[in-house]
Amino acid sequence: MTKNRKVDFYHAPNTRSTGVLTLLEELGAEYQLRLLDMKAGKQREPGYLAVNPMGKVPAIVHDGALVTEQVAVYLYLADLYPEAGLAPEIGDPLRGPYLRWMAFYGSCFEPAVVDRAEQRAPAPPSMSPYGDWDTVINVLKEQLSRGPWLLGERFTAADVLWGTALAWTTAFGLVPLESPIREYIERVGARPAFERVRAREAELAAAQAAT
In the chain, which ranges are E strands? Predict the structure, then answer.
């Protein structure tokens, strides 16, 4: 494993990259925070597009390698810090379920949420990447009901991803705030790393608003 584990982390407050900031805190990771003001359009300026041509956050650079796309960033960071125990290793019976729920987030949950937010019907079943909304949410709720965490008794990077995502999607009314989702959000949000990041995000957003 590389000796250098410090990453450059490109972040905008109160965006999808907030979860990555939380994960970095959970991991006790070394990172250089590189802030972007998305309201000022900094993510579309040439300097950042040279890093990530998609003009999105989160993005990390580690040992010269660029990692973008939310789930990929989570997987990379959790594996980079194995001593934190947030990623089941290959050979661990939980590795498969862990990868399943990480992939389910990007391939099923997010496209379903976007369709729901835009009030549009999904593609026909043979073409829809997630099937239908009711199936997605019911499968998720059934898994969460086994609790306390997504994989049962073990807290992983998947809980950072899902806890963050469910907090903001329920806040905007995109996902119903009902059991067991409500209880799961409360458990995840009570962790010290989440509390620290909420306070830090408020400070970062206020500083950007003042400039």
Answer: 7-11, 31-35, 59-62, 65-68
Its pTM surpasses 0.85: yes
Contact in structure between 161 and 105 (CB atoms under 8 Å)? yes
Q: Torsions phi, psi of 55, nearest 5?
A: 65, 35
Does this chain's domain 7-85 share its CATH topology with 95-193? Answer: no
Contact 149, 159 (CB under 8 A): yes
Radius of gyration of the chain (CA): 17
> Who's near 208: CB < 8 A, 6+ residues apart?
13, 35, 37, 39, 40
Which numeric CATH code is attached to 95-193?
Answer: 1.20.1050.10
Residues 71-107: tens digit of each pLDDT: 999 999 999 999 999 999 999 999 999 999 999 999 9
Give the list of residues 6+ apart from residue 198 with CB closer than 8 angstroms, or none.
none
CATH number of 7-85: 3.40.30.10
Q: What backbone torsions phi and psi does residue 146 show, to the nearest 5 degrees?
A: -80, -25
